[in-house]
Specification:
single chain; alpha+beta; Aminopeptidase; 2 domains; 13-stranded mixed beta sheet; 10 helices; 13 strands; 36% helix; binds coenzyme A
């Protein structure tokens, strides 16, 4: 089978070409989680260009020029993890086990070498055995595992939520919680960026992975971006004496998918933990969403396996494990050895 792999800029692609990439992306997401609701084209354009990362994309084409696989190599734009390239490879189901994934990997390896990055970082899902098999075949190391958890909104224990909400002010004296629908006001963005900064340094990350820098400008550009495709409800915890934001949880709802609330981040600054603030903000946001966003079926969230405090709150709320994502990484030299051992030429068009 003749095949070509080319580097492409999604912004320069017309809708028809992007649609064929979107089909592979949606199919992979559904394979990982059958509950996934497909992205639309405009949504995909926006998600593909979310701020904070520099991205390179590759397409594998079949004999008629049809897209059969896609790959992305990306890195954070703040200089963190200068030795790493994060990669993602997807091949349409009908074209697997024919070397397409390896051909895409070859281009990503060349990119890493061009950028002077020595480690490739990726992940696989337990629901897609092919992804794990591919990673193992090339000799990638497995790192941290993450739970994707889900609860059915109809099964939420309203008494429990009400209790967490009502007990908040007595368990955590000197704090208050505000619920905000829509964007966070500008004057809070510095505090929120600081919260992300501290929390990323506190939460479990795979060995060797550095947290990124956070600034009010980055938070502003991220929220401006996501506002184009989602609605949000947040609960923010303030320390009364300083007026600072010390805790946050956010629920997002994709405009294209009213069935699901996505918990993006829940965090309480380490010096303010142990007072029930995590439960208070979770309850406040969830109760607000119940009244503002009727009709949804699922609430979903992701947590590291080792993040016991967050998992404990989520289990009590009724979240149940849905799938497992495992971080993997491999040195670029070893990935190159794997590619060469399979007779794939490095350097542009490939044919077998
Ligand atoms: C992972 C994926 C990209 C592999 O693409 P592919 O084109 O099938 O890969 P290749 O044909 O180049 O496979 C190379 C080798 O990997 C191993 N491999 C790949 N899929 C496998 C499977 N289902 N079972 C066992 N081994 C497998 C084999 O050693 C294979 O060589 P072989 O076919 O000669 O035995 C593809 O299965 C996919 O798109 N999966 C969904 C997305 C995903 O999980 N991506 C990883 C997360 S970023």
């Amino acid at each position: 089978m003749k095949r070509r792999v080319e580097e492409v800029d999604y912004d320069a692609l017309d809708d028809t070409r992007l649609e064929s990439i979107l089909q592979i992306t949606n199919a992979t997401s559904r394979e990982a989680n059958p509950r996934f609701n497909d992205f639309g084209l405009d949504e995909f354009r926006l998600i593909s260009s979310s701020p904070g990362r520099v991205r390179h994309r590759f397409l594998a084409q079949g004999p008629e020029g049809e897209v059969v696989g896609v790959a992305e190599g990306s890195f954070a734009d703040d200089g963190s993890n200068p030795d790493r390239l994060r990669i993602q490879i997807s091949v349409e189901a009908a074209s697997r086990r024919a070397g397409v994934g390896t051909a895409l990997l070859a281009r990503v390896v060349e990119l890493a070498e061009r950028l002077g990055r020595s480690t490739l970082q990726s992940w696989h899902y337990d629901t897609i055995p092919a992804g794990r098999a591919f990673a193992r075949a090339m000799g990638a190391r497995e790192g941290l595992q993450f739970h994707d958890n889900v609860l059915r909104i109809a099964e939420l224990d309203l008494h429990l939520l009400q209790r967490w909400n009502d007990q908040g002010p007595t368990r955590a004296t000197g704090y208050r919680v505000e619920v905000i629908e829509g964007p966070w006001p500008d004057h809070l963005l510095g505090d929120i960026a600081q919260l992300y900064f501290v929390l990323e340094r506190d939460m479990p990350l795979s060995e060797g992975v550095e947290p990124r820098e956070w600034s009010a400008e980055l938070v502003a550009s991220m929220q401006a971006h996501y506002r184009k495709l989602t609605s949000s409800i947040s609960a923010l915890a303030f320390e009364e004496s300083t007026g600072g934001v010390i805790g946050l949880t956010q629920l997002l709802k994709r405009d294209s998918d009213p069935t699901t609330w996505i918990v993006t981040t829940t965090m309480v600054d380490p010096t303010h933990r142990g007072k029930g603030i995590g439960k208070w903000i979770k309850a406040a946001a969830t109760l607000e969403a119940l009244s503002r966003w009727p009709g949804a079926v699922y609430q979903e969230t992701g947590n590291a396996f080792t993040n016991e405090p967050m998992l404990a709150i989520n289990r009590e709320m009724g979240f149940e494990h849905e799938l497992t994502t495992t971080d993997v990484e491999i040195e670029v030299d070893l990935a190159r050895d794997f590619i060469e051992s399979r007779g794939v030429q490095m350097g542009g068009a490939t044919g077998t």
